[in-house]
Amino acid sequence: QATPGYVTPGTRPGNGLAPNMKVTDLGKGGRTFRINFIKGDEMMSGLTEFAEKYKIRNAHFTAIGALGKGLFGWADPENRTRGQKKIELNEEAEIVSFMGNMYVDEKGQHVVHGHGSVALQDGTVKGGHWWEAHVSLVGVVFVTEEEDAK
Asked: Do strands 110-119 and 93-104 pair parallel, antiparallel, or not at all (unpaired)?
């Protein structure tokens, strides 16, 4: 019997609740990289330069570190033509999540697409789609490239 306000141990998600799910086999794992950023580096432009230099066609990444300045975005699903609402960071913050993918678009340009959040000194969190991420201390990104992915 469930205790009110708690999820019972061993509870599993329901079955059949994602009928539109699509699975793509991305091939066996390829190269893995660790990218170190230091104070003053801007991670998003650095990751784009990395993707171009190493000819990354399909990869995913995660990261940890600290920022002193950033620009995140929030996409309003009701009005996407406006672009994304700006969420600015102008203080010291710890990266608590940052993940995304790298790919080559239909125009042949390398794209770095990341979402994440940072924790502020008081424990509150800011985040969204990452446009700029200026490292204040260190930033470490782990990139896994998928081999043979089309």
From this structure: antiparallel
Condensed to tens digits (0 to 9), the pLDDT of residues 74-93 reads: 988 887 777 889 999 999 99
Provide DSSP, the chain: -PPTTSPPTT--PPSS--TT-------SEEEEEEEEEETT-BHHHHHHHHHHHTT--EEEEEEEEEEEEEEEEEE-TT-GGG-EEEEEE-S-EEEEEEEEEEEE-TTS-EEEEEEEEEE-TTS-EEEEEEEEEEEEEEEEEEEEEETT--
pLDDT of residue 11: 75
Confidence of residue 20 (pLDDT cuts 50, 70, 90): confident
The yes-or-no verdict on residue 116 having pLDDT over 60 is yes
For 140, the token pair is: 């470490």
CA 80 – CA 84 distance, rounded (Å): 7
Q: Are strands 29-38 and 84-89 parallel, antiparallel or unpaired?
A: unpaired
